Amino acid sequence: MRIDIITVLPELLQSPFEASILKRAIDKGLVAVHTHNLRDFSTNRYRQIDDYQFGGGAGMVMMVEPIDKCITMLKSEREYDEIIYMTPDGDTLSQGIANELSLKENIIILCGHYKGVDQRVRDHFITREISIGDFVLSGGELAAAVLCDAVIRLLPGVLGNETSALTDSFQDNLLAPPIYTRPADYKGWKVPEILTSGNTPKIEQWRETEALKRTQQRRPDLLE
Ligand code: ADE
Predict the structure, then answer these.
(1) Chain-centre distance for alpha carbon 9
(2) Is the shortest distance between the CB of 136 and ligand 1 below 6 Å?
(3) CATH T-level topology, domain 169-223
(4) What is the pLDDT, as a whole number, of residue 163?
(5) Cα separation, 67 vs 125, whole angstroms
């Protein structure tokens, strides 16, 4: 998979890809992540990429031309399955969307700033708009990093234990059950006995019951 991220703040998109699972996925060649500084596509000697909005009002708008130039350059090099715009008014990111995107070959992610992008960018280039939740960030970069993390960890070979993404919360519309590790008794706080019984079918049954209980208590909407 290849991910091209268009941003005015490439610095914000460095460290998430330089540590842990995402770094390993990149080092293994399972994904390539490229960031593109939108200012490099400005046609103006001040490297300007935003301007005042027509009709007046506070806040700058990201101009169509630099974005067009960047996307057109990328599209001349390969075909893209999706051109995603990170925006608080997009579809809320879910495990289902992450699963779907993990099957794509090449995607572009455009990070918004200021008031957002000129509507013509959305009308003519963007194939999908994604929000990471009902709150407003100062830019789309951190949202893009969240999306990349959710997608990349699903790529085959990224997680050590191949089954572990399958048992995540949300993969079957259930939250994950409680988990424990050694010691079995810490200050008298004991691990449920069933988990140390070695009875695998019983343990599986217990986990299913606990997952259902937790979902009923915390996220009954997932069961509807
Ligand atoms: N840009 C600003 N806020 C955002 C959000 N909640 N999700 C995605 N992109 C954003």
Answers:
(1) 17
(2) yes
(3) Trp Operon Repressor; Chain A (1.10.1270)
(4) 64
(5) 9
Token representation of residue 10: 């490439």
Q: Is ligand 1 within 6 A of the CB of residue 137?
A: yes
Domain parsing of the chain, residue ranges: 2-152, 169-223
Nearest to 170 by CA among 98, 84, 92, 89: 98
Whole-structure pTM value? 0.94
Q: Could you tell me if residue 157 is left (phi over 0), alpha (psi between -120 and 50 degrees) or otherwise beta?
A: left
Are 171 and 165 contacting, i.e. CB atoms less than 8 angstroms apart? Answer: yes
Cβ of 41: how many Cβ atoms within 10 Å?
20
Average pLDDT over every residue of 95-109 = 97
Q: Is the CB of 159 under 6 A from ligand 1?
A: no
Q: Which of 87, 89, 129 to mutate to test the pocket of ligand 1 (most atoms within 8 A of CB)?
A: 87
CB 148 within 8 A of CB 87: no
Instruction: Confirm or reject: Cβ of 140 under 6 Å from ligand 1.
Output: yes
The tens digit of pLDDT for each residue in 23-37 reads 999 999 999 999 999
CB of 116 closer than 6 angstroms to any ligand 1 atom = no
In our burial notation (b when 16+ CB lie closer than 10 A, e otherwise), range 92-109 reads: ebebebbeebbeeebbbb
**Index of the ligand 1 atom closest to the CA of residue 135:** 6
pLDDT, tens digit, for every residue of 148-176? 999 999 999 999 876 678 778 887 899 99
CATH class name, domain 2-152: alpha beta
Q: Position 167: which residue type? A: T
Q: Fold match between 2-152 and 169-223?
A: no
